[in-house]
Design brief:
Layout (H helix, E strand, L loop, with lengths): L2 E4 L11 E5 L4 H6 L10 H8 L8 H11 L1 E5 L1 E6 L8 E5 L2 H7 L5 E5 L1 H11 L9 E3 L10 H8 L9 H4 L3
Parallel strand pairs: 2-3, 2-6, 6-7
Antiparallel strand pairs: 1-4, 4-5
EC number: 3.2.2.15
InterPro entries: Hypoxan-DNA_Glyclase (IPR026353), Uracil-DNA_glycosylase-like (IPR005122), Uracil-DNA_glycosylase-like_sf (IPR036895)
Keywords: Glycosidase, Hydrolase
Length: about 170
């Protein structure tokens, strides 16, 4: 039986430079009211490595770590129906207002997708990936994506250059 699900609000501030988009939080994340709440999801350990930080246990500190690094986080789906937690089971989805978020935070200059599913849903609802945001499709951090942690981490390290503030990127 499919359940009607609702995503969380975005994590973003005026310093955000990269928007990471997932699909829809899984069942455990929804129950915990936390993005990437499944203990085997590699998202938070990857973010800690990307940010050169120890992984905080506290969810509020994890969110602060993202914002300090210039990373915004949201999902393509605002609402959907889904049985279980697999992206392939998502149906009857309504997208979040990503266009409004990008207008509200003009410092965001890149979009990264947490896996092919997020990019596919974005294309379905918003058309081609917006080239002005240099979209990156990164390896899914989901435990259902059976790829070694180091291989996922290597893919996600491509975000590092995008996290450098524009004024620093132009310095010799």
């Amino acid at each position: 039986m499919s359940l009607k699900l609702q995503s969380f609000g975005p994590i973003a501030d005026k310093h955000s430079r990269v928007l990471v988009l997932g699909t829809m939080p899984g069942a455990m994340s929804l129950a915990k009211r936390q993005y990437y709440g499944h203990p085997r999801n590699a998202f938070w350990p990857i973010m800690a490595r990307l940010c050169d930080r120890e992984l905080p246990e506290d969810y509020a500190l994890r969110k602060a770590m993202l914002l300090d690094a210039g990373i915004a986080l949201w999902d393509v789906c605002g609402e959907c129906e889904r049985e279980g937690s697999l992206d392939s089971n998502i149906c009857h989805e309504k997208p979040n207002r990503i266009d409004e978020l990008l207008r509200s935070y003009p410092s965001i200059r890149a979009i990264a997708f947490n896996g092919q599913g997020a990019a596919r849903l974005y294309r379905k609802h918003f058309g081609p990936l917006a080239s002005e945001y240099g979209p990156l499709i990164l390896p899914s951090t989901s435990p259902a994506h059976a790829v070694a942690f180091d291989k996922k981490l290597d893919g996600w390290m491509r975000l590092r250059d995008l996290l450098v503030p524009a004024d620093e990127a132009s310095r010799p």
